[in-house]
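Re: weekly structure request thread

Next one in the queue (97 aa):
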Amino acid sequence: MMNPVFWLIWNILEIYKWIVLIAVVMSWLLAFNVINYHNNFVRGAVRTLEALTEPVFRQARRIIPTIGGIDLSPILVFLAIGFLQYAITYFSVMMHF
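Done, posted below.
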């Protein structure tokens, strides 16, 4: 059984992973003109996703800059989230002993 604080942090990180994934997919759909930015719903969704992800992506870009027009910051964010979730699980298990 996991500590309630660890459980909360784990789930916040899990939700943020989904937000990052949706932001990446939306950026691809915009880049390939599958969805139109002039649509009010799409514009609002993109702005919301950018507000949630861009501060974290900006910090990741300081470590790994864009290479050949490809933004690798979401990959670094996924790795960081995975590391944090693993650390939470590890320390949660260690606290039981």
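The chain has a mean pLDDT of 94. Residues 4-95 form one domain.
Next request, please.
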